[in-house]
């Protein structure tokens, strides 16, 4: 079996199609990872993948039908088989609700370039530093647990309308949990594009510092607390809000962005503070695909939108809900601009301090969290989320961190938090503990919330 | 029973395995295994009876896992050639070498008999991927339009997920297995609004390890469940908000399976108990030193791990370590008596044998210790659900799963449901809304005062159990009878949100 260049797979696939319209998407990816526990590497691996997606469209008397099929494929013969199946499936399908003309011809300058790749060597310096960190941890009675991954995916999108787009998405992340002899735990995490900016020994030093904060431990009951959510925790919550911000679901009355009685809440003020939540493919350090890649149609993606250019979109500006994630189809239904989903999220609420801990300076008695975990939706209309604190809740007294506190279960709505916070730091690159593996390009501030609802105590440590 | 799809067995399975394993042997690997997998899938989504999207997927690839000088190495590829098999084995060895300096712990695998050329196919009649798409769209569309005709229903969504999984496994000891599994999950949900309040009601039909016949052969009462859905939604929209407090609760298996999954299934995974998931999914309060002594729940609690139950989502013939499927006790008379194991966990901790819980969700992933079908057993002569309800003076009856969350050591959990019914003086008194139950795992299971009989037992489950880094998704079933719990804390979720 021959492995062909991605561009050749696209061209031969389009050429082979007998449907009225065709899109071929090739995703070439490589990934390398290391995982460790109890100061010992546990699993590791490298993987390479090549997936081809074919979207065929056929015009009928009642509308345009579409079919989308994906498979692992690296040879022209395999793609031809896939195209035949997609063409057949489109002829058998009923009209697609989201049917629209394909995006017109655009050819990226880098279209002819080969896919970028990664390998285990990207993580070799990290492995060496980890060896030193493991030794240090062992000698100090600490244990380290963690995971590092680097992934590079090159995507090629071609269509029968002449579209030829290419995007390379590097991404990586590291998370490390430290435990001391008394089972106190702390966590640090970071997203990265190439691991050049990851300092494993520095992360270990951060863990040591946080475990130091926990020398004194205090038990607190459930209740509402003056709480500082660091950028990581804010990302944990606002990524979820972003994921539920689909226009079609709101229009159908299924989310917190639905207006009771019908329509969406676009135009409503969600916060009196200067809250801006936006996505921008060109955001420095958080760059992501500048065009839509849709492998299947759903409530907030459309295969007909493949290749559509993306640009900065303000979801919330000056506290007002400005946009929801739209396909061209849902934009018609909601009579709003076309604002497809974008692969990063940036939140700015006008804070100026650069260190989240600085927010503690004005705090008489409250909590500083590290991160949140097991976040799930409890109520769609209020976007009430539940979840837990994890690996470091610290007590702040008179502006100083004075000890660690037990974990809590919370019940809160991220939309409410944007209306209730009283202080914030500047936005900074962040890494969601819960969702970072799948959505790692975020920049968020720390928020101080005067009455964060800690619903019950968790015994977990 | 179906045969293994010849388009899979026609692939050069043994030739590629031989090439990869021989190369691993050349490098002195003490263990090497090879998997070639094909995972075919189809998702179909309808909104208000119209097709919103359908997508067919197929993942095909192979991987090699080695132990060299006591250290794991793993590599995978999408290229199915002898050259790629050899190169992938070499990459796996290279990964082991890079990892060796930070892997002082030597991997020891528990022994396992050799299984030569074993073949296993799950129990189903009709390959769902062989059924034309328009037949599925017609069926789901008809169901959706019937639901949409009800006055309380503003919108209807229908979703169908289907998988056919083929795995070929071979290792240096001479074991080779070829398997085929099928699973399918249909789900319909209706949405409505009343007095500014929006809500939804979803089917409680479980995902199953069955074929297309699940929707058409009449053994599951789809007509009855769908016909009831609009009235259930209307009642929920009109229901009073729950009074928070402490209640006796009767939990239907359609809800209890998820509590079992989170508070027992994950808590009895030995890798978690030993800290291997500490940075991600978390550890377990059920630590290894408590095996045989931890009073997990009340004496009426009997929980099994099972990779053999017919139509189970975690049911296999052999796991991804080449271990034959088994059934065993996890909790007996309320006491922790077992864990879920793979060969490495068993080998490092003195168990004679793995109980067959290794699983990788794709050829690109390394096998990890994953959940068996973990099930609460019924009482042989236990009551039916009405009998349990009759024993409650003031309480709630909970049906269907919805929101779920549990802490990193599996202590504190919170669950909601599709429907909460008030119980007064042993009888149901209509739905309440905005309810969630919250408890600590051991408090909750120790408060279980009665379990229902076999007539209440149902096998439920999910496709989306997440674990490990890189993240892997597994499907798993959980059987449960209805059960009665005393003095459980019930929250009002509107009050929690400050509204």
From TrEMBL, chain A:
Transmembrane segments: none
Origin superkingdom: Bacteria
GO biological process: proteolysis
GO molecular function: metallopeptidase activity
Pfam families: PmbA_TldD_3rd (PF19289)
Domain Metalloprotease TldD/E C-terminal: 223-455
UniProt protein name: Metallopeptidase TldD-related protein
Organism this protein belongs to: Solicola gregarius
TrEMBL record, chain B:
InterPro entries cross-referenced by the UniProt entry: Metalloprtase-TldD/E_C (IPR045569), Metalloprtase-TldD/E_N (IPR002510), Peptidase_U62_metallo (IPR051463), TldD/PmbA_N (IPR035068), TldD/PmbA_sf (IPR036059)
Family of this protein: Belongs to the peptidase U62 family.
Residue intervals of the Metalloprotease TldD/E C-terminal domain: 244-490
Protein name in the entry: TldD/PmbA family protein
Molecular function (Gene Ontology), one example: metallopeptidase activity
Keyword Metal-binding: no
GO terms under cellular component: cytosol
Gene3D superfamilies cross-referenced by the UniProt entry: PmbA/TldD superfamily (3.30.2290.10)
An example Gene Ontology biological process: proteolysis
Domain Metalloprotease TldD/E N-terminal span(s) in chain numbering: 32-96
Native organism: Solicola gregarius
Keyword terms of this UniProt record: Hydrolase, Metalloprotease, Protease
Domain of life of the native organism: Bacteria
Pfam families the record matches: PmbA_TldD_1st, PmbA_TldD_3rd
Coiled-coil ranges from the UniProt annotation: none
Presence of the UniProt keyword Protease in the record: yes
